[in-house]
Amino acid sequence: MNRDTKRCVILSLLDGMESHLEEQVMVRNCCLSLCQFDIPQEILFNYGRVANLLVKVLETHNSDVLTQRIVVFLLNSMACHVEGEQKVEVGEIGAIEIILKQIERKLSMNTCDDVMEVGWSFLWNITDETPSNCERFLRAHGLILFSKCFSRFGSRYFELVRNMMGLIGNIAEVFELRNQLMTNAYLEIFCHLLDNLTESIEISYNSAGVLAHLVSDGDDRWAESGVNIPREDVNRKIVKATEKWDLQARRFINYRSFKPIIRLLPQWHSEGAQQWAVWALANLTTTDRKKYCRFVIEEGGLQVLENLAVDERSTEGIKNLANIVLKNIDECESTLLQNKIFELLDGACSEIRVSCAADKSRSTFDCNHVFIRLEYDTEIGKRKTDYWPRSIEEAIKRCEKYLIKHRITEVEVNYEQLRPSNNSTNEITESQQFETIRIVYMNETGAIPEICVYRRNEDRRLIPIESDGHARLAGKSSATPHHTIQQVYVYDMPIMFGKAAFDEWTFFKRSDPKSYSAAFEMLPSEQQLAIKILM
């Protein structure tokens, strides 16, 4: 079915449910039919109506277990992948209160089934970064229900406790609401769950996250709550718990933002909050770099982590974890850069292939050259270009067999980076200047590849960077004796100078400057410019 047909089917199902809401079998079958669609993507065009109808179905047919299970599943699927406005909309139609009633009904029957577990999962998802829904949950006496469910089923049902603590974590992220968690009874539950490593770290992790936000508010707010448990004891328990977790553990969690975590990083008065936050970032950027490294950069975490890694107030554990995050970000950015360079080179090979096919007069032995210019983004910061030369080299290595096949004998990649600053921080200053970096790959023989990284100095001469000299691509160091078989080319100009020809002009200039000047003036402007650039 195409998109329009699917929409017609969905609208027909909704019309049927609306017109025959009392018909249990029909409503159930309509809900089952909705499950066959991609939720929530294919119902976004009528999201509010679907959510409203599902809530009404749950109210009307609360005694039918199968219908309950289907509707709660649909509501949870709708809450998983939508943004704030739609979550607020679901909260405003009474979905939170209805789900809490379903959970309370199951509790009265002493039953913990799919409806209860998925119901708590729905509440976890619908309150994520949505303070208004967190407040609705609290107003509906959700914390009391949490306490009862934990007392009744907490020791036996891992998924139930994980979902409940995920929800409590969302409340803990809201400064105005988390004081309602500050009671001796709740703190005892959260501290007890720090040692719960049943099946995975999720329960312990979520509990530590709740406590991290509570201790981050400082001594005064802790004292105002009147709890008996010392704040420093909780800090120590959080740190001790994180030391037991596996940093490589894959997580049952889907963060949409790191802002609540990043806010905890500079809380120097709360070691437990810092430890949990930096561990979370280290774990998530290790296990899913492609998704989560971007969050750290875009949400302002990079500078805070760099400060944590060097600040004397940071513990060794926090410094190590901060460095892990920074290393993960560098490697992720390096991979993205490599993939981009490879994509550009692959595109260049395709263009050459098409050009040769269209122009039969071109010799298959023509030497082809590729020039790539990378734009520097000052928002990235100085440290983000440190790995570029090595990443570009790796990308060229990956593409080398295609370069040889298409007779691409030279690839040059140019970009500008900030010159190193004299200050001790990595912050960009107005006095800093840009410098040009050139990575040049040459392979005229098809057998002996060479690569060199150059820095252009103040008088526009290209100086090879000592650690990145010729023959690096062949696995040798720049200090290894070797012969260079190459020519020097001028890009974007119709004239190419061979190395021998250029050497002749250089010798001519040194031996007879006056005659050289006269001969130079007779050259075409392109050749004059070429010689000036090369010299």
Question: Would you mind describing this structure in some detail?
Answer:
This protein has 535 residues and is α+β, with helices and mostly antiparallel strands. Among the domains are: 3-181, Leucine-rich Repeat Variant (Alpha Horseshoe), CATH 1.25.10; 363-421 and 431-484, no CATH class; 487-535, no CATH class. Helices cover 58% and strands 7% of the residues. It has a 5-stranded mixed sheet, covered by helices on one side. α3 (47-60) packs antiparallel against α4, α12 packs antiparallel against α14 (231-242) and α21 (499-511) packs across α22 (513-521). It is elongated, with a radius of gyration of 32 Å.
Topology:
Layout lengths: L2 H17 L4 H11 L12 H14 L4 H16 L3 H9 L2 H14 L5 H14 L3 H9 L2 H12 L4 H15 L11 H10 L8 H14 L2 H8 L5 H12 L16 H4 L8 H17 L1 H10 L2 H10 L5 H43 L9 E7 L13 H18 L2 E11 L15 E9 L7 E7 L5 E3 L34 H13 L1 H9 L3 H10 L1
Helix pairs in contact: 1-2, 2-4, 3-4, 3-6, 4-7, 6-7, 6-9, 7-10, 10-12, 11-12, 12-14, 12-16, 14-16, 16-17, 16-19, 17-19, 18-19, 19-20, 21-22
Helical percent range? 55-70%
Q: Trace the largest sheet across and list its strands.
A: 1-2-3-4-5
**CATH architecture heading of the domain at 3-181:** Alpha Horseshoe
Highest-level CATH class of the domain at 3-181: Mainly Alpha
Domain Protein zer-1 homolog-like C-terminal: 1-330
Protein name: Atx10homo_assoc domain-containing protein
Pfam families: ZER1-like_2nd
GO cellular component, one term: Cul2-RING ubiquitin ligase complex
